[in-house]
Amino acid sequence: MRKHKLGIYEKALPKNISWQDRLSIAKACGF
Hints:
Elements: H1 19-28
């Protein structure tokens, strides 16, 4: 597990998607 805490920059993703979708996208990108 990484020691660095990461966050999601919510403005980088469309406003009309759910947080579950945002997390899925972040995971797919390797975060």
